[in-house]
Amino acid sequence: MANAPTPTEQQSILGALRSPRRLRTEVLAGLVVALALIPEAISFSIIAGVDPRVGLFASFTMAVTIAVVGGRPAMISAATGAVALVVAPLVHSHGLNYLVAAVILAGVLQLLLGGLGVARLMRFVPRSVMVGFVNALAILIFLSQLPHLLGVPWLVYPMVVAAIAIMVALPKLTTAIPAPLVAIVVLTAVTVGLGWSVPNVGDEGQLPSSLPALLIPDVPFTVHTLAVIAPYSLTMAVVGLLESLMTAKLVDDITDTHSNKSREAMGQGVANVVTGFFGGMGGCAMIGQTMINVKACGARTRISTFLAGTLLLGLVVGLGDVVARIPMAALVAVMIMVSVGTFDWHRISPNTLRRMPKSETTVMVATVAVTVATDNLAYGVTVGTLTAMVLFARRVAHMTEVVDIAHPDENTRVYAVKGELFFASSNDLVYQFDYVGDPANVVIDMSHAHIWDASTVATLDAITTKYAAKGKTVRIVGMNDNSAERHARLSGQLAGEH
Fold this sequence. Notes:
The chain crosses the membrane at residues 27-48, 54-70, 98-122, 129-146, 152-170, 177-199, 219-242, 303-320, 326-346. 62% of the residues lie in helices and 8% in strands. The chain has helices spanning 13-18, 20-48, 52-69, 81-94, 96-115, 127-143, 156-173, 179-194, 223-255, 261-277, 287-296, 302-318, 320-323, 328-342, 350-355, 358-374, 377-397, 423-426, 454-469, 481-490, and strands at residues 77-78, 284-285, 401-409, 412-421, 441-451, 473-477. β4 (412-421), α18 (423-426) and β5 (441-451) form a beta-alpha-beta unit. The longest helix has 33 residues, at 223-255. The radius of gyration is 29 Å and the shape is elongated. The N and C termini lie far apart (71 Å).
């Protein structure tokens, strides 16, 4: 019996092509994601103030391009709500051509940021921020479905319940076909067969009937144009990269594999440039659809991502009349299940919260609260990371101490400084010595301390100056090589910084 493929081997395209079972999983996952992308892309187009075709074409070009050039296999990129919110004011004030120009520039900026190694900054995102990001994402996915459940015919509610029941029960019987796909097909067949009048995909907006065409934005190539689009492009680039890299890290954890974040950052840039030249509204990684692809359907390769884009275009252009009749209740049920499956229930259980340091819980709550309040994952991650940094600095600052350890003779006193010395911990250091009562010779032993910044060197200079003003001498000993080098280079050069 052959060994099961490892998580890394599961990402192999050749491996999937050689295995009918794995290929079927990739194909069906791509189909489910394509169906789920359609109403989302239309909704985001409406938010951005553009024709639904702009969002649908963007989802097609983003998915197909990122499948080839991206760094994270099985991750879905398409038109997103975050990008739609960013570009909406530009569309309102200057129109579609300026939007296209902004998307292209955003892609170029992402290429530059990726090349400069911005992806490496992900190492500074704490685990508690990641948990908050995931839980906020789950909440936003659920909240985004509420408009489809308000003011609708009563039949929608039992349909949603039935679809959820199918997705819960079917995997216990078989995993040969993704449960979300079965739920969509069954509800569509029942709705059409019985002639029920319920909201469907066609109600979300008109589907395109032609393929996207190459488009050069009709804008003046002037400094004024650059000044108009640059703020939107930069915001789009940063928000898109942050959401994409966070999503890539989440998929890494789910699949127990590692992805090339720098390649992903540059791939997002290429995808946005391509999308812009085909008249799309731009985008980034779609977290909900990625969870459908990876978690609900079990996809692991670029095949599913590529097919999600191509099937999306094929469905809306070639089978638009059929797709338009898919009830929104089925897609809402799929997204609700994604929301429930994405939420990290373990981290909010009473037992876990009791064991977790309060600072970690604070960071997680801050990330969730800001994200949900602003409807922007980028803001939440930024606030969460800054909160974690402040709490960490505060915690480390309180681990520094000055201890009187020896009196070799009546004219000498030895202090030991212990801890990590930086701006937050060294500020109070100057107040922990007895400048008046100490003898003529003072020794400060730094064997158990480390100097991290110029603020600490300035503080040590201040201590020496205060003792000198009393006619006393100070000798600093025991520095490690790194601290000694920093102290030698900066001491005496920082007058006025203490």
